[in-house]
Design brief:
The complex is a heterodimer. By secondary structure, chain A is α/β, with parallel strands linked by helices. Chain A has two domains: 120 residues, Rossmann fold; 116 residues, Rossmann fold (3-Layer(aba) Sandwich). Helix content of chain A is 43%, strand content 17%. Chain A contains 14 helices and ten strands. In chain A, strands 5, 6, 7, 8, 9 and 10 form a six-stranded mixed β-sheet that branches. A four-stranded parallel β-sheet of chain A has the order 2-1-3-4, sandwiched between helices. The longest helix of chain A is centred in the middle third of the chain and has 15 residues. In chain B, helix 1 runs parallel beside helix 13 and helix 4 runs antiparallel to helix 7. Chain B is built from 14 helices and two strands. In chain B, a hairpin with a 2-residue loop joins strand 1 and strand 2. Chain B has a two-stranded antiparallel ribbon. By secondary structure, chain B is mainly alpha-helical. The two termini of chain B are 21 Å apart. Chain B has a single domain, classed as ABC transporter involved in vitamin B12 uptake, BtuC, CATH 1.10.3470. The chains are: A alpha/beta, B mainly alpha. At the A-B interface, helix 3 and helix 4 of A face helix 3 and helix 7 of B.
Chain lengths: 261, 326
């Protein structure tokens, strides 16, 4: 059966998969063309209230097709791949958006999505605006920052090299207190040894820890310079872990704390 | 009673199969679906594609996997004379999960394509079963109790291996592995269905041929031996055939629990323990339960879907408890 477009003309119906992808589509002003998103897409508010096609790595072929999309824009890692294959067979184009923590990927992702939506001028404007906001004045004293992700069953996880939080910390003018690669469990001793000047934590992790006071009272954090100065930056989880239009906001929050040091 | 069951069960298979074709997150009119084999023009191109390339292969895979798990469970419970035996016990699921974990974490970009993961899972299943079988031998003779113990040990080892891969893997791989272990028929398509079809059908055919001998075997190993049966050969055949079929089932759908355990019990309670009834009736009931559960899994959260393995455990575990307390 030859793939063929389902709707020759008429309304554009987008499904966006992955929080950064959804945010870029909305930032390009194409939010009204989005008919559904995945469960990780919680920003902006409109995206959160759209129908949900499930978790980005557990999609359903018929579920996607039932929404009659004309295009699906998905972050790398969406799947399962067999499901996406079924959807492609039905003639729905799927764009896979790379997921790498560096600025050139953010630029090329915006260009890719803008191109697919026929919004190249908006794309160029958005990319330039983000670049400009990200490259503002650096704080005078570079601080070391420890980024704590969810306290999973086995204790805290920290973001090391090659992660979005690491990029945000470096863009803010600081450096990562941890030098392993990826997001991994953090031993309590390593947390003490890393002696961060600043803690970055996702809002959901902070809630699980029981608030800032409970967090700083944890034995492995209480002895750190960050706890002594009460320097904690709370960033909403999706903003912390995904590289997108809201990244400058996270960077500015980090800079504000670093500038006050 | 048995005659009635063999009228009701095929009808139930037919009904659930038709329901699986008719229901889904896309609203396709039932009348159009009913006419589809004769009048494909009643459907739009996309609707036909959904039925022919998504619902149909998925329904067929569901029937086969459900049937396979139930038949394998019944045969293993027969050979081990242990009501708790299920395909997981001889290492198939644990080994498959380890194979899948290895492929997800270590395979990287080198092994892509829709068959890489199923093949790795199948290889893991075969290797684990061979290990269980090898460790279960005593003085050249196979002993079911030591095989059960070896199964527990090999499963624990596989679990540890999965833990190591989870530790090494990144967030994305971890999620992928987690969803794989929940079991789902969502990846079904003709290209993934066909390679698993042959081993499952061959395995079920082989086990059916052994039904009478399983009856003899259930008298006890010594008794079976005196009645002219080679118990050693028998265990070899049943374990080999189960590994082949369940390995293919797990490779295609991930581990799906409780069907292999609960279905044989249900049939024994209602129709008796003779394998010539147990195997075919279990086959049909297993198919009905899995396709039924999958249909629910596809529509309750539409346009998203639940992993059907999760749903099976969610419904199967309380049901099994009820069966125990009854």
């Amino acid at each position: 059966m030859a793939p063929r477009p389902i709707q020759a003309a008429g309304a554009v119906r987008l499904i966006t998969i992955g929080a950064p992808t959804t945010e870029i589509v909305f930032a390009l002003g194409a939010g009204d063309q989005v008919v559904a998103t995945d469960t990780t897409s919680r920003f902006p508010q409109t995206a959160a209230t759209l129908p949900k096609v499930g978790y980005m790595r557990a999609l359903s072929a018929e579920g996607l097709l039932s929404l009659a999309p004309t295009r699906i824009i998905a972050q790398d890692g969406s799947g399962p791949i067999e499901v996406l294959e079924r959807v492609r067979e039905a003639g729905i184009p799927i764009d896979m958006v790379p997921d790498r923590p560096d600025l050139s990927t953010l630029d090329s992702n915006i260009a890719l999505i803008a191109g697919r939506l026929g919004r190249e001028p908006e794309g160029a404007r958005l990319a330039a605006e983000l670049r400009q906001r990200l490259s503002q004045n650096q704080p005078p004293t570079p601080l070391s920052a420890l980024c704590l992700i969810h306290p999973g069953g086995g204790g805290w996880m920290a973001a090391g090299r090659d992660t979005v939080p690491d990029l945000l910390i470096r863009l803010a003018g600081g450096h990562n207190a941890i030098d392993f690669a990826g997001i991994r469990p953090l031993s309590l001793e390593a947390a003490v040894d890393s002696a961060p000047d600043l803690l970055v934590i996702s809002s959901s992790a902070l809630a699980q820890a029981g608030g800032v006071d409970a967090l700083l009272a944890l034995p492995h954090l209480a002895a750190t310079p960050a706890a002594a100065k009460r320097r904690v930056v709370v960033v909403e989880s999706q903003m912390l872990l995904g590289l997108g239009p809201r990244s400058p906001e996270a960077v500015q929050r980090l800079r504000a704390v670093m500038a006050a040091a | 009673m048995i005659r009635l069951a063999f009228i009701i069960l095929p009808l139930a298979v037919l009904a659930v199969a038709l329901l699986a074709l008719a229901l889904g997150s896309s609203a396709i009119p039932m009348t159009a679906v009913a006419l589809w084999p004769w009048d494909a023009a009643a459907l739009s191109d996309q609707q036909r594609l959904i039925i022919e390339n998504i619902r149909l292969p998925r329904m067929v895979l569901g029937l086969l996997v459900g049937a396979m798990l139930a038949v394998a469970g019944a045969a293993l419970q027969g050979i081990f004379r242990n009501p708790l035996a299920d395909p997981g016990l001889i290492g198939v699921s644990g080994g498959a999960a380890l194979g899948a974990a290895a492929m997800i974490v270590m395979g990287g970009d080198r092994f892509v394509g829709p068959l890489a993961l199923p093949l790795a899972a199948f290889a893991g299943a075969v290797i684990a079963t061979l290990a269980v079988y090898g460790l279960g031998r005593r003085h050249g003779m196979i002993s079911p109790p030591s095989m059960l113990l070896a199964g527990i040990a090999v499963n624990a080892l596989a679990g540890a291996g999965i833990g190591v891969f989870s530790y090494v893997g990144d967030d994305l791989q971890l999620r992928q592995l987690t969803f794989w272990t929940m079991g789902s028929l969502g990846a079904a398509g003709w290209s993934t269905l066909l390679p698993s079809l042959v081993p499952m059908l061959a395995s079920m055919a082989g086990l059916f041929l052994l039904a009478t001998r399983l009856d003899v075997f259930s008298l006890g190993e010594r008794e079976a031996f005196h009645l002219g049966l080679n118990p050693h050969r028998m265990v070899q055949l049943v374990v080999g055939l189960t590994c082949l079929g369940v390995g293919a089932a797990v490779a295609a759908a991930g581990p799906i629990g409780f069907i292999g355990l609960v279905v044989p019990h249900l049939i024994r309670l209602s129709l008796g323990a003779g394998h010539r009834v147990l195997l075919p009736a279990g086959m049909m009931l297993g198919a009905v339960l899995l396709v039924g559960a999958d249909t629910i899994a596809r529509i309750v959260a539409a346009p998203a879907e639940l992993p059907v393995g999760l749903l099976c455990s969610l419904l199967g575990a309380p049901f099994f408890l009820w069966l125990l307390r009854r």
